[in-house]
Amino acid sequence: MPQSLITGAYPATRLRRVRQHDWARRLVRETKPSPDDLVWGMIVHDGKEPRVSVKSMPGVDRLNVDEAAKAAVRARELGIPAIAIFPHINPARKNEGGDEAVNPEGLVPTVIQAMKAAAPEVGIACDVALDPFTSHGHDGLLSDDGYVLNDETVSVLTEQALIQARAGADIVAPSDMMDGRIGAIRTLLDEEGYDNVMILSYAAKYASAFYGPYRDAVGTASVLKGDKKTYQMDFGNTEEALREVAMDIQEGADMVMVKPGLPYLDIVQRVSSEFGVPTLVFQISGEYAQIKAAAAQGWLDEDKAIVETLSAFKRAGASGVITYFAERAAQLLGK
Q1: Could you give the number of structural domains in the chain?
Q2: 233, 175 contact by CB (below 8 A)
Q3: Residue from 94, 205, 228, 314 carrying the catalytic annotation
Q4: Tally of CA atoms within 13 A in the half-sphere of 96 that contains its CB
Q5: Is 259 a catalytic residue?
Q6: Structure confidence by residue, pLDDT tens digits, 187-202
């Protein structure tokens, strides 16, 4: 290279100029996650103990009703818009059909009512699926040969969603991946006068190895028979995800979700760009556990990893992120 270029104006554009100071980096930063982007993933339980730690998810506790209500107040204080609740049910209340899922006096309706009474400004999203309630750990009803029945399951899911809406849920979030359940739920909610209750569809939910800690948290790991590959998506597929999303939007979903998170950023990007609808992503239990485990070993900085991963989701096009890190993330992002 000619010496004149090295000592003269070369190069005319120096992109490093805007990286040299913290204030400059903040000024030109393209993606800036905030507490407004967060949905607090929360495990609730039907016991008397205020908190029960989840061994495979350090820092996450199952909360009883009173603690869940306090957490709703905490979410309001931190500016977290919404909480997504997932139940751990006493095994004595589980059966093959997951009947406890449609108990209007059960854990989930009780928690919804307590949280809305404590902090009505915080949105409450409820998981619509049968796996926490069934003795076999699947998301639906089983045939005699162990196949998850689609239409029979949808019938129960619609009743479950209606009970949640009656209890005060702002969002019902079907995570079961049964075909046609969004349309069935939307129809029933509208008929019953709950036309303002939103549906967040787990539209592209993959059969993933990263769900293990969550199954410990809600008590399905020890009872799950087989896998969920006949209804959750194959992790090799992209076009199928777009078909799933398109179907759920057509059936009335207000928001859609991609799950898991980091291993599926390409799906988040395609869904958000091709459909232009509110697209959430779930930073699931295995992703949470990875960061916690590495941080415990001193292999990475936990706080920095939280912010970086949230930025990745936003950069890919996510409207919001369900995460078990929400409380800490809101503290970091609110500074």
Answers
A1: 1
A2: no
A3: 205
A4: 7
A5: yes
A6: 999 999 999 999 999 9
